[in-house]
Design goal:
The protein contains 13 helices and 15 strands. By secondary structure, the protein is of the alpha+beta class. Strand 6 (191-193) and strand 7 form a beta hairpin. The protein is globular.
């Protein structure tokens, strides 16, 4: 009650971020505090630190010590992180060390809650393959452990497309042939990962009717590399560079096993090959698709060449080898990191017991199995 004659307050007191009852159910307050932890406003972050450090009057009356409140909050934050990692399918490949720092843990929560979830799932698929291709530290077991203190700044999360900001959380731990694969911005506003420069193509640059304009995601934008090649998303670009540029590290054993030429004028192949090259009907249980095109730097090109990789192993939690099909220039290539179980001239099915069923599963669906497996040129 206010003293007699006192003017009523024009602004009600800000409610505490959590109340005593919330010590046992902090999911909503944690999300609220997490947003403050990664805010660009210094005042919001300062207010959060004050809330964490200061007990409410109710907590004092109930006998909660500062240590009890902090311990309970820290435990709730850790549980929130674990649930988020499980929900996003990242628990097998990524972990965060927050120590006893509640604010650091809240930053992790905020990072994990960014976006629709698909951006993080794409990074998880990439990270599993990064382990197979030995881009992670040599002594680092799965999951890859990140320190909360190494997270990008709040400004970086607001300035970068989300998929790129998420890659930035772990990219500094990846390397290829001694070259860091951390995401860096160049002086001209473009970006670089290792020796691979690229730039983001805004939606406004794509002409009407461009195939990559349909479904454009600002959180995972179109990428231009080397002035000639165009990728529908940053996550597709990452997968492509992994399979092309960062694939031949020591002990990886990545190889093209078979090459099949599919004649561009042969009416037997054109419809089936075209469906495999362009269909949107490949589900994740069959594989994931990484597309790109060569338009020679002309977004209006009518004769751009489409390319596709269908990755059928390597991106799931229990995969130990990477297996994929590559299409483009009227041919189909079969690639794998699987070590052959026998030498030539043993049949492919005896030599690559894991890869052959996966390749054939995709080819059979498009009625190309015999044309590729039986008539293709065996290289390894």
């Amino acid at each position: 009650m206010q003293p007699t004659g006192a003017a009523p307050s024009s602004r009600p007191a800000s409610p505490a971020l959590f109340q005593p009852a919330d010590l046992f159910d902090l999911s909503l307050p944690i999300s609220k505090m997490a947003a403050m932890a990664l805010a660009t406003d210094d005042a919001k972050r300062a207010a959060l630190r004050s809330q964490i450090a200061t007990r409410t009057r109710q907590q004092e009356l109930l006998g909660h010590t500062a240590e009890t409140v902090n311990s309970t909050l820290l435990n709730a934050v850790q549980q929130h992180i674990h649930k988020a990692l499980s929900r996003l399918g990242l628990a097998d490949v990524l972990a965060f060390d927050i120590g006893g720092d509640v604010e650091a843990g809240l930053k992790v929560v905020c990072v994990l809650e960014r976006g629709s979830g698909e951006e993080w799932r794409a990074m998880g698929r990439f990270l599993r393959m990064a382990f197979i291709y030995r881009l992670t530290p040599a002594d680092a077991p799965r999951p890859l452990r990140l320190s909360a203190s190494s997270l990008p700044t709040a400004t970086a999360f607001h300035q970068l497309p989300l998929a790129m900001a998420l890659y930035k959380t772990f990219g500094q731990q990846l390397s290829y042939m001694g070259i860091s694969l951390a995401l860096q911005q160049t002086d001209d506003g473009a970006y670089r990962i290792g020796n691979v420069p690229f730039r983001v193509v805004p939606l406004g640059e794509l002409p009407g009717g461009h195939p990559y304009a349909d479904g454009y995601k600002r959180t995972d934008p179109v990428i231009r590399w080397n002035e000639w090649l165009l990728f529908p998303s940053f996550s597709a670009f990452l997968m492509d560079r992994l399979l092309v540029w960062w694939c031949d590290g020591e002990g990886v054993g990545c190889k093209m096993v078979l090459l099949a030429r599919i004649g561009s004028e042969d009416p037997r192949y054109v419809p089936r090959y075209g469906r495999l090259l362009r269909t949107d009907d490949i589900t994740e249980d069959q594989g994931i698709v990484a597309d790109y095109c060569n338009d020679w730097g002309n977004l209006n090109a009518a004769d751009a060449t489409d390319y596709r990789r269908v990755i059928v192993s390597g991106f799931r939690p229990n995969d130990t080898v990477t297996v994929y099909l590559q299409m483009g220039h009227n041919d189909i290539q079969l690639w794998t990191t699987e070590a052959p179980a026998a030498d030539r001239p043993h049949p492919l099915a005896d030599r690559y017991t894991l890869s052959i069923p996966l390749w054939c599963g995709v080819l059979r669906r498009f009625e190309l199995e015999t044309d590729v497996i039986d008539r293709g040129m065996v290289l390894r």
